[in-house]
Write a structure and sequence with these properties.
The complex is a heterodimer of chains A (287) and B (222). With 287 residues, chain A is an all-alpha fold. Chain A has two domains: 31 residues; 216 residues, Orthogonal Bundle (MetI-like fold). Chain A is built from ten helices and no strands. The radius of gyration of chain B is 20 Å and the shape is flat. Chain B is an all-alpha fold. Classes of the chains: A mainly alpha (287), B mainly alpha (222). Chain B: One of its GO terms (biological process) is amino acid transport.
């Protein structure tokens, strides 16, 4: 066991405190076991451990026909929206840095408005608007991807802007001093350094985007949630809870992996000597 | 414009549900979040681990999944009910899921706030003989709260926007659902969409300004 570390809140415990901590530990463990036992008993009462509920998840059919297409649906939306959001974010992020007022101010408005609209309202609106403009059809994916693009793209625009602004002023001053034009300064000096600084924040925003793809469930887009909660239980009755566990593991696993990657990028960028800019703060905001 | 006037009262009734949800969830999230952060910084390793697990699991789960799970898994399958009235039951299920979700973000915000409190504050508190809970309650948390007013404001704003997802938890009453319902019967209406967007912004923007102002005013001078 490692020696207990002193933190801001408490000293390294002495003999008395260790004893007290051990007692509290015991109480906590007992309480947690109690909660776990209660859940198990409750699940058993409702017959959630019955073989027929779990059996479908050990059959290739279930994976092949429901879960894997569900994962594909979720990932398709996430990947498409990520690509478009990155393009949208780059364009509007740079537009907000423009020297021309007539570009900078409208771009600022677009970014602020799309960040403030509740995402689901935006998705609903596009979902119902699309058939009016383009005739009948299934616009679930379209509405989801456009909605996610506009919202996450606007957040990414702020990240791009912050990344470019994080490059110390001396860098662009030096570039102008040796005779570079505005576009060369941006392309050769600012963006390469800003990219390293904003990568961690971009990846952590992609976690938010991936989580928001679950909104497709509400507009009946065939994603993992619809497959697990609606379609699969209609074939194999009573599998909702097991499906929820699978969906949860998928999202939590993938998001933790991405978050870990973002943190790793941030540490790397902090050490990096290729950029003079400090990394842009990670997205910790709730969405 | 006619649609907005015609369906205005329904939309307003829906919007009041959003506000109701926001208010209750904000209070619960702040309380739960404070409890979670107390667990995460406590001297008991098991409590810390439990807090960390809860926060990481809930934070990385989509809110839509949490809501659908509460309605379909906890309520339908396991029989967790808050009330015999279907509307009240759905309402409190949504409140539960949303508060827990927001609480994990409150917890993370507070934890970063605690990190801004200088070591000397807690050392001085211990030197005068305060216990862990006293140090946390009287010295650390008041300073931490003041340091994270702006981030907490963002959590509340996000919470208000998130109440539109309530229908995933079976609460078919909020403004987003009314809008969906209206579009479904009469077709898409731009005035209704813009009207609702403005209604949400009319609540979230002032909260942003107010918490920003409060954060500046209450900032701990160091």
């Amino acid at each position: 066991m490692t020696k207990p570390q002193a933190t801001v809140l408490y000293d390294a415990p002495g003999p008395k405190a260790r004893l007290r901590n051990n007692i509290y530990t015991m109480i906590t463990v007992v309480a947690l076991l109690g909660v776990a036992a209660f859940v198990v008993v409750k699940l058993n009462d409702k017959g959630q451990f019955a073989g027929n509920i779990w059996a479908p998840f050990f059959e290739w059919e279930t994976w092949n026909q429901y879960l894997i297409p569900g994962v594909q649906g979720t990932l398709t939306a996430a990947v498409l929206a990520s690509i478009f959001a990155l393009i949208f974010g780059s364009v509007f992020g740079l537009a907000r840095l423009s020297d021309h007022k007539w570009i900078r101010i409208p771009a600022g408005w677009v970014v602020e408005v799309f960040r403030a609209i509740p995402l689901l309202l935006l998705i609903f609106f596009i979902w119902f608007l699309a058939p009016d403009l383009m005739g009948g059809g299934d616009y679930g994916l379209l509405a989801l991807v456009i909605g996610l693009t506009l919202y996450n793209g606007s957040v990414l625009a702020e990240v791009v802007r912050a990344g470019v602004l994080a490059v110390p002023k001396g860098q662009s001053e030096a570039a102008y001093a040796i005779g570079m034009r505005k576009s060369s300064v941006m392309r050769l000096i600012l963006l390469p350094q800003a990219l390293t600084a904003m990568m961690p924040a971009v990846v952590s925003q992609l976690v938010v985007l991936l989580k928001d793809t679950a909104l497709g469930y509400i507009i009946t887009y065939i994603d993992l949630l619809n497959m697990g909660f609606k379609i699969l239980p209609s074939v194999h009755f009573g599998t909702k809870l097991v499906a929820a566990i699978f969906i949860g593991v998928f999202y939590i696993g993938l998001n933790m992996l991405l978050s870990w990657f973002a943190n790793w990028l941030e540490r790397r960028s902090r050490r990096s000597r290729k950029t003079a800019a400090k990394p842009v703060a990670l997205t910790t905001e709730m969405t | 414009m006619d649609e907005l006037i015609e369906y205005g009262p329904d939309l307003l009734k829906g919007f009041l549900v959003n506000l109701q949800l926001s208010a209750i969830c904000t209070v619960l999230a702040l309380v739960l979040g404070t409890i979670l952060v107390a667990m995460r910084v406590s001297p008991i390793p098991v409590l810390r681990a439990a807090g960390t697990t809860v926060v990481n699991v809930i934070r990385n789960t989509p809110l839509t999944l949490l809501l659908a799970f509460s309605a379909l898994g906890l309520s339908d399958t396991l029989g967790l009910t808050f009330s015999d009235e279907p509307y009240d039951n759905a309402f409190w299920l949504v409140v539960m899921a949303m508060s827990i979700y927001a609480a994990t973000f409150v917890c993370e915000a507070l934890r970063s706030g605690i990190n801004t409190v200088p070591m000397g504050q807690a050392e001085a508190a211990r030197a005068v003989g305060l216990t862990f809970m006293q140090t946390l309650r009287l010295i650390i948390l008041p300073q931490a709260f003041r340091a994270v007013i702006a981030p907490l404001g963002s959590v509340v704003i996000a919470l208000i926007k998130n109440t539109t997802v309530a229908q995933a938890g079976g609460l078919l009453a909020d403004a987003a659902f009314v809008m969906y319902d209206t579009f479904d019967t009469t077709g898409v209406s731009i005035p209704i969409f813009i009207g609702l967007v403005i209604a949400f912004m009319a609540v979230t923007l002032p909260i942003g300004w107010f918490t920003g102002w409060l954060a500046k005013r209450l900032a701990v001078a160091r």
